Amino acid sequence: MSFQPSNVMLYWRGIDDEAVYQSLGFGLGYALPQATTSTRPAVTQLANYTEIMVCRGPADADGMYWSINKDFTATAGQAGWGDGPGATSWTPSITPWKQGAALAWIGVGNDNRIWTSNYGMGGNPWSAQALAALTQHNNEPITTASSPAIASDPDGNILMVWRGPGDDDGLYSATSTDGRNFTNFTPVPNSASSIEPTLVYFANGFVLAFKGGQDTGIYSIVKPDITTAWNSASFSSCGSKGTSHGPCLIAADEMLVMAWKGIPGDNNLYYATNATGSPYSWSNQSVIQNSGSSVGPAGFYYRTAPPVL
User: Fold this and answer.
1) What range does the domain containing 196 cover?
2) Is the pLDDT of residue 83 over 70?
């Protein structure tokens, strides 16, 4: 299936408002009725072609809400402590996983631990929340100063990347088969970021992109597969592109799409494409019409369900 720009779905929080906006095919953005968030939403499409969105509540509401409504015009439910994903000070990260999805997020306030849950794996929509732990470090909880990024491969392996806690702006990664117990902990070479990274499975490997630690540049690096080390030779700046926040990556068949908010003082949203997955093969940036966000976008590539034969 060839790349169809009209199938790229982008979502973002407004500049001075908490409405969730949508753009189809990089076209005009418009607000979704009833959908609000105080941060970047997390969106993806599942294996059964169901779209799902998870976002932190509006204003000072730390609870997370989720929806599988076609246009996310209303939350289908509220995720609460005890029986699903609970609350966060920032942005959750979601990825298709097996027949459902895996979710990861940082805790509330002084809780800098990473929490996880999965969707669609049992009788309840969401599994009980659990701390992400490093099995090779005596099940020590993973901590971070920002939101983690997660992605999965077709075999059900999950890769998670996160910024260090406190003043540690290095990026780290680990793998999991159940979404909560992580191993193969390793620093991402050459990396530093002031905010959360973005991660996607593309072209049989993983591509990571992130804002710089002390600058507004956007950088990228490739992990060829779940077992192979990060390809330090592939580390590269994504051209002259810059942001004040974390970018997002979207796998769109044979095309990789990146979208991001502009540098400080520039609330426009931009996008570029990459047909190879190489960190240094991005197209020139284009502005997304009628767009603007204080935190940056999220998105997925819509794939039409196969016909019923």
Assistant:
1) 5-301
2) no
